[in-house]
Automatic annotation (TrEMBL):
Domain of life of the source: Bacteria
Transmembrane segments: none
Protein name: Carbonic anhydrase
Taxonomic classification: Bacteria, Katanobacteria
Annotated source species: candidate division WWE3 bacterium
GO molecular function list: carbonate dehydratase activity; zinc ion binding
């Protein structure tokens, strides 16, 4: 079995890809992480559109865990997320503080569900801002 530092779940939104890559480099994770990119990041764990959506994402995490044994699982949600807006969960156009507050509940729910299955793996929750910032949610 290979050993990696992290399994990273991010959104597909192009506006955040460079910042997420920079975050991974700064934290010595780039090249030592499995990266799972899905619309809404935490969305389909915490508040899935269908059971199949949640199953797919949890299965991807499970593959990373079974093949690469990550030290931690990092979930990166972001400001102005189209997936959360499209499903009516969080409206677009909020300032970063309000958006972070709204995402925190979903991120914490995703963490709870992941830890039910993988309780020996640290789960880190991040909120990415349009300004390039990352805020850890606890």
């Amino acid at each position: 079995m290979h050993k990696i530092k992290a399994c990273v779940i991010t959104c597909i939104d192009f506006r955040f890809q460079k910042n997420i890559k920079d975050y991974l480099v700064q934290n010595n994770h780039l090249g030592d992480a499995d990266i799972i990119s899905v619309a809404g990041a935490s969305h389909d764990i915490a508040t899935p559109q269908t059971a199949e959506h949640q199953y797919y994402l949890m299965n991807q995490i499970g593959i990373s865990v079974s093949l690469h044994n990550p030290d931690k699982i990092i979930i990166v949600d972001h400001q102005d997320c189209g997936m959360y807006a499209a499903t009516g969960k969080i409206e677009k156009g909020l300032d970063l503080a309000e958006d972070t507050q709204r995402h925190a509940d979903y991120l914490l729910k995703a963490k709870e569900l992941i830890q039910q299955k993988y309780n020996n793996i640290e789960v880190v929750l991040l909120m990415a801002g349009l300004d390039g910032s990352f805020t850890e949610i606890s």
